């Protein structure tokens, strides 16, 4: 059924398409489902814009850093655009640092299945001799991740286990053959410190690690301002004109002042 549905095509007016591909009339969609759908789409819309901005930032950063490296090479009479490795740049005052690091991507090949079979054979025999800790170690190392693949770090951990047994040496060979290069990854890391004598602090570029920047207000006014900006962006995305947005903001301001007036008056007379 999925093959006959154009999921990118907008459903007819007054209908929504559910996860099975069926058209459901708006009157049959619960308020909770509508609310959930709107929140999910809003978060994805802003997240997609943020992801695109992060990609552009990464590309501009690579262009800027490699461009600087090429200019330095040319100043010494070398040829620009040659082999590029890890690069570390520091600001003139020693308080800001940019690190471009390259790392090999490693893929896990089908040889991992042969290694798993050999490991199972070994453990079946060794477990009879009481090596249950080893079974627990190997079982844990071979647990696949969310993508169904055995993590490379787990394979490397097994390769460090040395056992004087010919079969285990074959296991090690299979594990080594299963690891193969799959290109290079480039990482951008930013560091900052208060003075050149202080240790470096990494600037988080991960969504899970971001924190409120220093000096950024965390009071109600700042939060309200951020919400107003978000609401304006939502209104523009929905096609609302500038005049209509201004009128809505003015009405919202009047309602806010009416709600807060009794509390303000009580505080003033207290």
Walkthrough of the structure:
The chain is α+β, with helices and mostly antiparallel strands and 270 residues long. The protein folds into three domains: 1-83; 85-211, no CATH class; 220-269, no CATH class. The protein has helices at residues 31-75, 111-127, 132-141, 152-159, 166-178, 220-237, 242-269; strands at residues 15-17, 23-25, 87-90, 96-108, 179-192, 201-202. The strands form two sheets. Strands 3-4-5-6 form a four-stranded antiparallel sheet. A hairpin with a 5-residue loop joins strand 3 (87-90) and strand 4 (96-108). Helix 2 (111-127) runs antiparallel to helix 3 and helix 2 (111-127) runs antiparallel to helix 5. The longest helix has 45 residues, at 31-75. The protein is extended, with a radius of gyration of 29 Å.
Shape descriptor:
extended
Query: Could you say how many structural domains there are in total?
Result: 3
State the helical fraction.
Answer: 40-55%
**Numbering strands along the chain, what is their spatial order in the largest sheet?**
3-4-5-6
Largest pleated sheet: 4 strands, antiparallel
Determine the structural class based on helices, strands and strand pairing: alpha+beta
Report Rg. Answer: 29 Å
Q: Tell me the β content.
A: 5-15%
* Chain-averaged pLDDT: 78
Count every beta strand, where a strand is a DSSP E run of 2 or more residues. Answer: 6
């Amino acid at each position: 059924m999925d093959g006959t549905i154009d999921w990118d095509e907008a459903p007819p007016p007054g209908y929504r398409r559910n996860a099975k591909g069926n058209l459901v009339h708006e009157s049959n969609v619960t308020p909770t489902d509508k609310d959930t759908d709107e929140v999910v789409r809003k978060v994805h819309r802003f997240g997609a814009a943020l992801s695109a901005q992060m990609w552009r930032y990464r590309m501009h950063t690579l262009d800027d850093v490699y461009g600087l490296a090429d200019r330095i090479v040319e100043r010494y009479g070398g040829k620009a655009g040659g082999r590029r490795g890890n690069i570390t740049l520091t600001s003139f005052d020693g308080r800001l640092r940019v690190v471009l690091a390259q790392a090999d991507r490693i893929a896990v090949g089908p040889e991992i299945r042969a290694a798993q079979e050999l490991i199972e054979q070994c453990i079946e025999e060794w477990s009879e001799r009481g090596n249950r800790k080893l079974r627990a170690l190997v079982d844990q190392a071979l647990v696949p991740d969310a993508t169904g693949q055995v993590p490379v770090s787990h394979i490397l951990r097994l390769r460090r286990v040395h056992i004087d047994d010919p079969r285990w040496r074959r296991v090690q060979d299979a594990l080594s053959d299963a690891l193969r290069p799959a290109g290079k990854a480039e990482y951008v890391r930013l560091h900052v410190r208060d003075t050149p004598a202080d240790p470096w602090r990494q600037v988080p570029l991960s969504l899970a690690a971001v924190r409120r920047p220093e000096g950024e207000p965390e009071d109600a006014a700042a939060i309200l301002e951020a919400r107003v900006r978000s609401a304006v962006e939502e209104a523009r995305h929905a096609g609302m004109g500038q005049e209509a947005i201004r009128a809505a903001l003015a009405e919202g301001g009047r309602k806010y002042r009416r709600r807060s007036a009794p509390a303000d008056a009580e505080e003033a007379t207290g």
